[in-house]
Predict the structure.
Amino acid sequence: MWELADLLISLVFYGTAYGMILYLLAVGLSVTLGLMRVVNLAHGVFAMAGGYVTVTAMSRFGWPFLAAVLAGVVVVGLLGVALERTLYRRLYSAPILEQVLFSIGLIFIAIAAARYFFGPLAQPIDLPAWLSTRLDIGIGVFPAYRVFLIGVGGMVALAIGMAIDGTRFGASIRAAVDNRRMAESVGINVSRVFTLSFALGTALAALGGSLGADLLPIYPGYPNDYLVYLLIVVAVAGLGNIRGALYVALAFGITDTTIRYFLPDVGRVLILLLVMAVLFRHPHGFAPKTQA
Amino acid sequence: MRPTRLLDGLVVAALAAFPLLAPGYLDLGTRMVILALFAMSLDLLVGYCGLVTLGHAAFFGMGAYAAGIFALRAWADPVAGLVVGGAAAALLGLVSGAVLLRSRRLTLIVLSLATVLVVQEVANKMTWLTGGADGLQGISMGPVLGRFAFDLLGRVSYAYAAVVLALGFLLFRALVDSNFGRSLVGIRENESRMHAIGTPVDARLRTAFVMSAALAGIAGALQAQVAEFVALNAVSVELSGEILIMLILGGAGRRYGAFLGAPVYVFMQDYLAREDPTNWYLWIGLMLLAIVFFAPGGLTAWLGALARRLGATRS
């Protein structure tokens, strides 16, 4: 009996850690889709870039882990501003086909660049000692790294929730998601809201990429491999549903971990069929807001 | 005579002329022909219905496995295999279309990705039937129509694939020129308006989806028969993306896009990727950005504009 309870607790724990990474990776994509209506399949590129910056800062320049993560977030956030201003901006009213092609093109260029600069192998990340131990958190003893992931993810989710609900910028985002034209006509600088929220989304992806580098290894295939999971989180939550993205990411992480544990052979098919069934019942996800 | 008639004839002539012009490259030519058929099937969805999917290889792979398994366990006749492959893919299209076509845009993309991943994982796990990760091996095809045995030079393979492509093109042409095809374009341009004037939008899209799946399945079956082997990556997200790129390179919804895009892509891949696979990714990426920002409509649109300019200077 106790063994079963222990097992379930650890499945939920590992699933939550995985879900938190997915949330960090996906939340920016949800904003991009809900706000700018851009189907940006290349969102994983920013997570990968963040991971590479972090790994490089640690191994080449000997920066401590947290400083290196911060460097990844800042560099990629600036990269996000630059790309939004130069390229993404032109695609806001483009047909979905062009958005998809553009983002596939960007993925290919990123893969080529990653291979050229870092080679085809996964980049090992040297976690600091305080993350390599195990922690007793009351319900069991777990790797400190994952406890840390859950803690950071939770704080980020909380901060995003408070910012969306309680700040002027958050109100502008909500307004622009609900009705872009109306937001513009009441004097919200939607163009600036776009740039800032795109940059924030890419920075969060970079945070997820660098913090999660030990769980989801950084290598050139990264933007392709996790793409479908990011898209699932965003589509099931509903585009632009920022809070929903957290719940869906956690639910997906826990369900995926559990199914794979009990049914390792058919787990991958089952979780995909489950997602298809959910999207069949709710083609617009669980958000009140529809259509990208 | 409408200019399309002339160009349609040109397409068929090019298919016939290839073995004469490049007799040493029949394998490459066969690959181009099969992928052109596959890209053409995708064009029905992407170009004419305006539905963007990233999972079309699910149907290609389904056709390939069905034809391969049929040849291995039942009957090695190629034409019967094509029918089996097309039918199996059409059935998958019927089922997955019912799920996919309830949504649009991003959700449709997610569902199409999920479809191809599910089919791939099933093919990967059912080792006793599909050979799993090693691929489906040991196929030995009988002669085409009971008369033309596959030869080592690939002459029969090429002729067989080219004839199937030409027949597929006749079907495709009849489809897109029919009222049915026009209604698909109408749905692409404005779905709610088509709905409002009484077009059964869902039924039309579902029909187009099944037809597209069947054509893709036939292309897959051809691939399985010509190679006498089915690799697991016949069902993959990569192939789904590649075929979309081929179509876009040629030009989606422009009748000849698949015929230009697939051969040009295969040629470039054969030439560039052999030299340096890393740069190959870079080139494809840059090419996609160039198409999006400078040449929407791909090669077909570009050639069309060129022809118009030449015509203008002459008159």
